[in-house]
UniProtKB/TrEMBL annotation:
This is UDP-glucose 4-epimerase. Its EC number is 5.1.3.2. The keyword Transmembrane helix does not apply. Its cofactor is NAD(+). It comes from Nocardiopsis rhodophaea.
Length: 338
């Protein structure tokens, strides 16, 4: 299929592009580079040996979307474009609602105008809020506590309404848990701008000597070792989840949601220990106060994706740490190092 990948120069987007191309699909990327990097597209081409038409533009611009869908016979869209920092969204709600909702609405309107009605949407486990119990299944209550999570919830509702109004739409929303790691080549990986919000890129930068220690946000949670527990899945497994969803879409009208996770919880201290095993270095840390808004435990029941999409994770957290360390070591300044 010819696939338009919005946000395709970002962490999830680049890894998804590699797996789509490796599976024989043709990929076109549009990315405004608010989080992504044009060098990452060149790395995707190097890994796959295929050219990737790239539009360094904002997909919320109708003129941009009209040009892309006119220039390319697109069969499906994988929509990853969006701002995604929880804390920042709380400080800048209007920017997040405008950016994330405008992008989705413009992309869907352009698709509809061109008769393209297959979409995989990058959603997030953050729509579950603080779950009443774990593992989390797709039918559990949804609740959000920040504008970023709200944009994911609102977009899922928009897509549900779209599919209900026109049965020709075939849509899957993928609720990511916590993606980590990097492509095995070490050529692409997570390259956060500024101080990493997320645990794993922060650990990687401490291991590389770019930061002095990991601050562990609380060890007084009701978890086995007191630190936060999450479902960390290898980004390549996540990318393959997009491929499975895309190939499942044909002939399945409606809107469906699937958890993409390992089904296993890992604590902050276990994550630090796993990275120490991967890099062969001690990673200093200090326990500090809880981060506002954090929950104790969150991990997936991924059985629906296994049943319907034939997808499950296969890579371990140790493999993810080894791949992340290979990327970090080879690219100490991320893509800026060229
Ligand atoms: C993981 C654990 C922290 C940093 C977020 C978003 C979610 C999704 C994934 C986009 C928690 C602890 C973290 C640090 C720490 N993003 N931690 N020190 O919060 O589960 O999910 O990223 O879709 O929407 O909410 O991930 O990596 O920030 O935190 O102790 O420096 O690590 O308390 O227990 P989170 P995270």
């Amino acid at each position: 299929m010819n696939v338009l990948l919005t946000g395709g120069a970002g962490y999830i987007g680049t890894h998804t592009a590699v797996e789509l191309i490796s599976a024989g699909h043709d990929v076109v990327v549009v990315d405004a580079l608010s989080n992504g990097n044009a060098e990452a597209i060149r790395r995707v081409e190097r890994i796959t040996g295929h050219a990737v038409p790239f539009y360094p533009e904002d997909c919320s611009d109708p003129v941009v979307m009209e040009k892309i869908l006119t220039d390319h016979p697109i069969d499906a869209v994988i929509h990853c474009a969006g701002l995604k920092a929880v804390g920042e969204s709380t400080e800048q709600p209007l920017r997040y609602y405008r950016n994330n909702l405008d992008a989705l609405l413009t992309v869907c309107e352009a698709m509809q105008a061109h008769g393209v009605r297959r979409m995989v949407f990058s959603s997030s486990a953050t729509v579950y809020g603080d779950p009443a119990h774990v593992p989390i299944t797709e039918d559990m209550p949804l609740s959000v506590s920040n504008p970023y999570g709200a944009t994911k919830l609102f977009i899922e509702q928009i897509l549900r309404d779209l599919a209900a109004a026109d049965a020709r739409w075939e849509i899957i929303s993928l609720r990511y848990f916590n993606p980590i790691g990097a492509h095995e080549s070490g050529l692409i990986g997570e390259d956060p701008h500024g101080v990493p919000n997320n645990l794993f890129p922060y650990i990687a930068q401490v291991a590389a000597g770019r930061r002095d220690k990991v601050r562990v946000f609380g060890d007084d949670y009701d978890t086995p070792d007191g630190t936060g527990v999450r479902d960390y899945l290898h980004v390549t497994d996540l990318a393959l989840g997009h491929l499975a969803a895309l190939e499942h879409l044909a002939g399945t009208p409606g809107h469906r949601v699937y958890n993409l996770g390992t089904g296993t919880g890992t604590s902050v201290l276990e994550s630090i220990a796993a990275f120490e095993r991967a890099c062969g270095r001690r990673i200093p840390y200090e326990v500090v106060g809880r981060r506002p808004g954090d929950i104790a435990t969150c991990y997936a029941d991924p059985s629906a994706a296994r049943r319907d999409l034939g997808w499950q994770t296969t890579r371990s957290i140790d493999e993810a740490c080894a791949d992340a360390w290979r990327w970090q070591s080879a690219n100490p300044r991320g893509f800026a190092g060229g």
